[in-house]
Specification:
- The complex is a heterodimer of chains A (106) and B (194).
- Chain A has no helices and 13 strands.
- Chain A has 106 residues and is mostly beta strands.
- In chain A, strands 1, 2, 3, 4, 5, 6, 7, 8, 9, 10, 11, 12 and 13 form a 13-stranded parallel sheet that branches.
- Chain A has one domain (4-98).
- Chain A is globular and about 45 Å long.
- Chain B has one domain (3-190).
- Chain B is globular, with a radius of gyration of 18 Å.
- Residues 1-11, 127-141, 149-171 and 175-186 of chain B have low confidence and may be disordered.
- The chains are: A mainly beta (106), B mainly beta (194).
- The A-B interface holds A 2-23, 25-26, 30, 39, 41-43, 58 and B 1, 3-4, 7-9, 11-30, 32, 35-36, 40.
Chain lengths: 106, 194
């Protein structure tokens, strides 16, 4: 239940780090590094490099994403940047531009 | 538009959880509850609540601030600043209303701005401050103060005047402001062990 929410009218310019789930409904610029899950909701805007375990994106993200577990792009999201994660899901309707790296061993 | 409710509680309220560190600039138009750490700069048009686990090392400008955790930095509030029983703060406060309850610890300046007409000017509060407060602050006014060190006299005097009441609820507004206003130009040191 230790849940952090960045509300829709909030703007953060800087670095966010922590060990718990983070829900973004507002705007974050800079850098995000978590050891848990990040949720970017429909109203959320992220212009940051992201390092987490899981990411679920329904809003807008500009920046590179590195996840240790999974990245999920929901429909209606807009993502520009490179994604690196062992599991990457892109739903129908999502818009994405960038590289995908699932770390497949050749 | 209907979906972003499922994960959060009441809309328009931001919570920074206990393990989260934010370093940088934070601004917004909603209430913010800090249980983790915020460093840098913080400006809101509404209320900042620093909970007991929260640490804010930032220059803060808000409408209201309620400090139950730690704040290092200056707070400028357009309405009020309240240091609760668990609040600890080092920095200056600029706000028309400042509430410091018993148990809070604070080091810094207080500026309540222009006092409303009818009250003595902050320049010379010693001419005509209410006798009750004066009596509590300097009991006998001897040339040499007895064992009690001068620096600590104001703290115990004004907090111990009504300990039972302030422990339950914030004290009635009238007693607090003049006490702090009287020392507004000096450094105020409130330190009290619980």
């Amino acid at each position: 239940m230790a849940n952090t929410v960045i509300g829709s009218s909030l703007i953060i310019d800087g670095e966010i780090s922590g060990d718990e789930d983070l829900v973004i409904q507002g705007t974050v610029k800079g850098k995000i590094s978590l050891r848990e899950s990040l949720f970017v909701e429909g109203s959320g805007v992220v212009e940051a490099d992201i390092e987490t375990q899981n990411v679920e994106i329904a809003g807008r993200v500009t920046g590179n994403i590195a996840a240790t577990d999974k990245v999920e792009l929901k429909s209606d999201c807009r993502v520009v940047g490179d994604i690196k994660a062992p599991r990457i899901l892109i739903a129908d309707g999502a818009s994405f531009k960038g590289n995908v790296d699932m770390d497949v061993k050749g | 538009m209907a979906s972003p409710k499922e994960l959060s509680g009441p809309a328009g309220n931001t919570v920074i959880g206990p393990s989260i560190l934010i370093n940088g600039k934070l601004s917004g138009d909603e209430d913010l509850t800090v249980r983790g750490r915020v460093e840098g700069e913080l400006s809101l048009t509404r209320t900042l609540i620093v909970e007991p686990s929260g640490v804010v090392k930032a220059n803060v400008s808000v409408k209201n601030a309620v400090v139950s955790g730690v704040v290092v930095g200056n707070i400028a509030a357009t309405e009020s600043v309240e240091l609760t029983r668990d609040g600890r703060m080092v920095g200056d406060i600029r706000s028309p209303r400042v509430i410091i309850v018993d148990g809070a610890s604070f080091r810094g300046r207080v500026d309540m701005g222009e006092l409303p007409p009818g009250r003595p000017l902050p320049e010379r509060p010693r001419t005509q401050v209410r006798p009750a407060v004066r009596a509590a602050l300097t009991p006998a006014r001897p040339p040499v103060l007895p064992p009690r060190p001068a620096g600590r006299a104001p703290g115990p005097a004004f907090v111990s005047s009504r300990p039972a009441e302030s422990a339950k609820a914030p004290p009635a507004p009238p007693p607090a402001p003049p006490t702090v206003a009287a020392g507004a130009k000096k450094k105020i040191v409130v330190k009290k062990k619980r």
